[in-house]
Design a protein that fits this description.
With 414 residues, this protein is α/β, with parallel strands linked by helices. It has 14 helices and 16 strands.
Length: 414
């Protein structure tokens, strides 16, 4: 994609007064011929696992995650951030499938050199991995999962309970993203009648539910609901239902491979109304699939535009200098910060143990991640008592002239 698209695909959170530390941690490392992290010489090897969809429809996002973690590992090595420790990455492809994610989790746990994992992309995949990592005491930091139940339990709306102490994330959740979208649609876009559609998966159904609750609370009316089969691309039946419902907006909980064709078919059915979705549709591919009729469609996503944050611009420059073939995409900054939180935890554990990894390194690193706090690519990075990111920034984007354009950044006020 062209440079302007690269910038628009990066969702980076605004923060005030990023100190020199952020610039230091985004210094660029050199790139190896095989695409792996610098191995250095001597000392202790610490591996950071990466789980993401590296092939398939969502690979654009997954490869951005992998490459950004690789950049973080190289940066730590170049800086000699942890004396006597060389960081490497081990990236596994989950193909956006829970069963593959679980198998990958087992493989990463069995590799004793793995001291932390960044990923996955999909909330449904995370559900299959959490217990495997938690049983092994291996820390997992996702740059992209937004399902609230992953950190706060299945009944999070009534009683928040942290089930897995080894799970963290650098992106904010759908408990905030859905209502934030509803407030924009109702208050700013002045839409009052919504048709809600989801793909029945953990992420999509959860996001649609939180949007719906807030939209109704504000006074909006849900004029129809439907579920689609994400394995197909024929949505003509639901498109006809949207047309006959009288909806002035459609909210879709799901991802861009389905959202693009859905938007196109809704317009073709005669319903000239915007389709709104979450970070799962915020990708240039959505616009390609949706066609010219996508102008005016909306997406919310975590963070704020890269152009607004100097430290993120440095990350962009370092990534480009690294020679990666793929874009860092929507979650690059969050992936870098997820990896950096693990790297800083390793640093503390090693320093607290006379310069060596202790026998119970995994458990100690997990505990250390809970307490990390630093100025990262995406702003201030730290975690609350549930493992959620303390940074709650979000942005609404609109399709304009064939590209996503930021229209409003802020935080949800409930």
């Amino acid at each position: 994609m062209k440079g302007r698209i690269v910038r628009q695909r990066s969702l980076i959170t605004i923060t005030a007064a990023l100190a020199a530390g952020a610039l230091t941690l985004t210094a660029c490392g050199s790139r190896d011929d095989d695409g792996g992290s610098d191995s250095g010489s001597g000392g202790t090897k610490v591996v950071i696992g990466v789980d993401a969809p590296l092939t398939g429809d969502l690979s654009a996002l997954g490869l951005g995650i992998k490459n950004s973690v690789d950049l973080a590992a190289k940066t730590a090595n170049k800086q000699k951030l942890v004396d006597g420790v060389t960081f490497e990455i081990k990236a596994l492809d989950d193909q956006a499938q829970p069963s593959s994610g679980q198998a990958n989790a087992v493989q990463l746990v069995s590799d004793k050199s793995v001291m932390g994992v960044v990923g996955p992309l999909n909330s449904s995949v995370a559900e299959s991995m959490q217990k495997v990592f938690d049983d092994a005491g291996l820390v997992e930091v996702s740059p992209a999962n937004t399902g609230p139940g992953l950190t706060q339990g299945a009944d999070w709306q009534n009683k928040k309970v942290r089930t897995y102490k080894s799970y963290f994330r650098t992106s904010t959740t759908d408990a905030i993203q859905g209502p934030f979208a509803a407030q924009y649609v109702y208050n700013d876009a002045k839409k009052t009648k919504v048709f809600v559609i989801d793909d029945k998966k953990t992420y999509g159904a959860g996001l649609a539910a939180t949007f719906t609750t807030e939209f109704k609370k504000l006074g909006g009316k849900v004029v129809g609901t439907q579920h689609i089969d994400p394995t197909t691309k024929d949505f003509s039946a639901v498109a006809t239902q949207v047309k006959s419902s009288g909806a002035d907006v459609v909210y879709y909980g799901g991802e861009y491979p389905q959202a693009g064709p859905l938007s196109k078919q809704i317009k073709a059915a005669g319903a000239k109304v915007p389709l709104v979705g979450g970070d799962g549709i915020f990708d240039p591919t959505f616009i390609e699939l949706a066609g010219d009729g996508s102008t005016g469609d909306l997406a919310t996503s975590v963070g704020a535009p890269v152009e607004e944050l100097p430290s993120a611009k440095q990350f962009v420059a370092d990534y480009k200098a690294g020679g990666y073939k793929e874009e860092y995409a929507a979650y690059g900054g969050y992936s870098y910060d997820a990896a950096w939180s693990i790297i800083l935890a390793v640093k503390k554990v090693v320093e607290d143990n006379d310069g060596k990894l202790p026998a119970d390194a995994r458990a100690k690193i997990t505990a250390a991640v809970q307490n990390v706090s630093f100025d990262g690519v995406t702003g201030k990075v730290s975690f609350d008592e549930y493992g959620d990111a303390t940074n709650k920034q979000l942005t609404v984007y609109a399709v304009e002239n064939g590209a996503w354009k930021a229209v409003k950044s802020g935080t949800y006020t409930g």
